[in-house]
Description:
Layout: H1 14-25, E1 32-33, H2 34-41, H3 47-56, E2 68-69, H4 86-94, H5 106-109
Parallel strand pairs: 1-2
The structure holds a DNA duplex.
Amino acid sequence: xxxxxxxxxxxxxxxxxxxxxxxxxxxxxxxxxxxxxxxxxxxxxxxxxxxxxxxxxxxxxxxxxxxxxxxxxxxxxxxxxxxxxxxxxxxxxxxxxxxxxxxxxxxxxxxxxxx
DNA sequence: TCCTTGACTTGTC
DNA sequence: CGACAAGCCAAGG
Length: 115
């Protein structure tokens, strides 16, 4: 663990700062996919880079990374939220509903920037 | 500069 | 639905 941001977020790469800014823009009760964020960042195909940005996202920014899910609605590697299922509880607390398969209902909670 | 890594996405079997 | 492969991008060594 050597996140440069652990010392100063201003030292983070440009792309990362965008991802953080966008992720922070995710309204409560909504979820955004990596592709969504990547697109807002300027690269709709940089979903992987977005994931990396989230991974390095310093907790000091309190980024709602738990609102970031896959395009399919499946949660991320929530191993960072205090154990598998922790992310789901957080989202449920936000008012987000889940399908019986455990996926987020993107049709209802997918963050739409057009609105 | 090149290669590797990764919390992604889509298409095919 | 599950598993595999190909393609996209940025950061780090």
